[in-house]
Amino acid sequence: MNKLLWTVQILLAALFLFAGGFKLVTPVEEMLKQMPVALPGWFLQFVGICEVLGGVGLVLPSALRIKPGLTPLAAAGLVIIMIGATVITIMGGMGATAVLPLVTGLLLVFIAYGRLRLVPITPAKTPERAYKASFPS
């Protein structure tokens, strides 16, 4: 179960780092042309920042064992974004393509529950121990 959680965490982190980074580097006018529902440009950039931070939060706290409780919180925050993405996709008349954000949201729920209840990662006691846990000899 732990390996499955790590695999899903890493894949979704890559997805959100790419999606959020794309929102941050693409001009707002270009993004608005591709949107099924018009949203303010500042909101799209805010979502991009949240996606990048969420992608980092899916992996980094657990990998370093420093505040690993942030990983389920990052997953829960990204679930909120995916709920919004699903609703906006359906509102834009593209019901079939709403499956992608829906499945992504369900995988995030799996990560949040898995890291909170099934296979939580124990925090390192000291920074030295965290370093040794990250880079075993």
Describe the protein's architecture and organization:
With 137 residues, the protein is mostly helical. Helices cover 77% and strands 0% of the residues. The chain has helices at 2-25, 28-34, 41-64, 70-91, 99-118, 127-134. The two termini are 25 Å apart.
Secondary-structure element pattern, one letter each: HHHHHH
Number of helices: 6
Helical fraction equals over 70%
Tell me what portion of residues adopts beta-strand conformation: under 5%
In a nutshell, what does this entry contain?
Helices cover about 75% and strands about 0% of the residues.
Structural descriptors:
137 residues; mainly alpha
Structural topology:
Blueprint: H1 2-25, H2 28-34, H3 41-64, H4 70-91, H5 99-118, H6 127-134
